[in-house]
Amino acid sequence: MPVTCVAKGCENKPKAFCTRIFHVIPTDVEWRRAWFDAVGLPETPILENKRYMVCEEHLTKEDYFEKIQHSTQTMVRRLEKMAAPSLFCKQPKDENNWQRKCY
Ligand SMILES: [Zn+2]
């Protein structure tokens, strides 16, 4: 099943060659509740997690920290514990204004 970002008004999908990060909703009970609250969806069993992804456009810079991945010696971005999506499109219908697409 194709997965789309579940945030309101967002239709971003993970694509090949796209650098946008997609996050699966966390498995930690409190944390995932915060995510479902943030995107306005009812909570679902963890088994269904894969159907719920949120793209990085709904998270702020402060929601991430960087660390070195030792196996590849590259910097990777990780989510801060309990960081939840907070940026949502205000005008879901107005494509020109808000929708950044990935090409
Ligand atoms: Zn999104």
UniProtKB/TrEMBL annotation:
What's a single GO MF annotation on this record? DNA binding
Instruction: Name all THAP-type domain ranges.
Output: 1-88
Which Gene3D superfamilies is this protein grouped with? THAP domain
Q: Which PROSITE patterns match?
A: ZF_THAP
Highest taxon of the lineage: Eukaryota
InterPro entries, A to Z:
THAP_Znf, THAP_Znf_sf
A Pfam cross-reference name: THAP
Protein name listed in UniProt:
THAP-type domain-containing protein
- This protein's species is Nothobranchius furzeri
